[in-house]
Amino acid sequence: MSSQRTQSVARRQDAGGWLFPLLATLIVAVFLTLAASSPAWAQSGTADPSVTAEQPTRGQIPGNALGGTNDTEFWKMIRQGQSGTVSQPDKKLGVLVDSSGENWRAILNGPVKVYGAWLILGVLALLALFYALRGRVPVDGGFSGKTVERFTTLDRFAHWLSATSFVILAFTGLNLVYGKYFLLPLIGPSAFSWITQAGKYAHNFVAFAFMAGVIMMFLLWVRFNIPKKHDLTWLAKGGGIFDSKVHAPSERFNAGQKGVFWLACLGGLSLSMSGIALLFPFEFGFFGKTFAALNGLGLDLPAQLSPLQEQQLNQIWHSILAFVLIAVMLAHVYIGSVGMQGAFSAMGSGQVDVNWAEEHHNMWYARLVEEGRAPPSNQIHPAE
Ligand code: HEM
């Protein structure tokens, strides 16, 4: 038994005797071959001269050891939100790291929030200053006691449908942006979260009433809002807003009102489209298509947007446009109520005093008198 074990150990020692030198020779041969085929920098032990601090390997790993692309470049592409291809129908899954989300957040929490607040506060301050200096714009000739129909029931329904829904949308929208700074400390987290959630639902649904109202106003009033030459005279005279003795020419709507009309319709349309894209995320590509169309005019805008970038642009645009429209509507609400004597009844009862009609819409009123649809005023008013 013991002699058998001794023989086997001796055989293994014999084998090791020729195996070891063979392996050693092989390793040396492989090493020498590799060394001969390596570039000079590898043999000398210095760094690759093509590698710089800014561009470590020009996007390529020498030797294609781990795939052709350098990790740094590859990571940079992922980090900058480059979209890859995916077989799933949900194409946004092609973006691994959406770093544009950080830019979006910074824009929204920075300039949009700050300048939006300044815009609204600035307009309110200007209106207060205007009221302090000018007071309520009076009816120059005083009330005559005779009235004329300015807006029908249908006109007023369309207006108040858009107006009330706009006010609800504005307050619930502003609460989403600023509520946590003002309302939350005042009413506490439970009430605030309840109000904000209810407000968000209201915002989603009331938006459709706003769209319906704007479409109605557009259909009812578009023919009165085509810009005409005399609108320039109205603008040059500042609409007579600074001096009651100055009367500027106007048909049913003056140049300022035409501006409000087009802003309400076109701004309302764009606000609605971006709002719908927010309600149904990743369904639309409005920005890519708009940018592609604008590029046809010689611009160089990024038309290839990822679904997430589309969504971010929608959100920023919706906020900016909402701030602009709120600012414009504040001025509109002011002049349609406290700012001008005799104006509100146009949208209240639908009737206005004939002196008011003649002072602010002389061409429209003159036509109504001519057609026998309005009583003549007591005053001779030289607005041309
Ligand atoms: C909530 C307060 C509002 C008040 C008190 C108000 C008041 C008025 C009044 C009195 C008029 C008639 C002016 C005239 O006879 O010439 C008017 C017209 C009009 N309103 Fe309003 N409005 C309000 C909100 C809105 C909103 C939110 C919108 C749009 C979304 C809007 C859009 C219009 C348009 C397009 C006109 C016709 C053009 C013009 O007069 O500027 N209004 N409004």
In angstroms, what separates the terminal alpha carbons?
133 Å
Strand content: under 5%
Uncertain runs: 1-16, 34-56
The fold-level CATH name of the domain at 153-370 is: Fumarate Reductase Cytochrome B subunit
The assigned CATH architecture of the domain at 153-370 is Up-down Bundle
Q: Given the C-alpha coordinates, what overall shape results?
A: elongated
In DSSP terms (H or I, runs of 4 or more residues), the helix count works out at 12
Cofactor: heme
GO molecular function, one term: formate dehydrogenase (quinone) activity
Keywords: Cell membrane, Electron transport, Heme, Iron, Membrane, Metal-binding, Signal, Transmembrane, Transmembrane helix, Transport
Signal peptide: 1-42
How would you sum up this structure, described in words?
The protein is mainly α and 384 residues long. It has a domain of 218 residues: Transmembrane di-heme cytochromes, Chain C (Fumarate Reductase Cytochrome B subunit), CATH 1.20.950. 64% of the residues lie in helices and 2% in strands. The protein is built from 12 helices and 2 strands; from the N terminus they run ααααβααααααβαα. A two-stranded antiparallel sheet has the order 1-2. The N terminus is likely disordered.
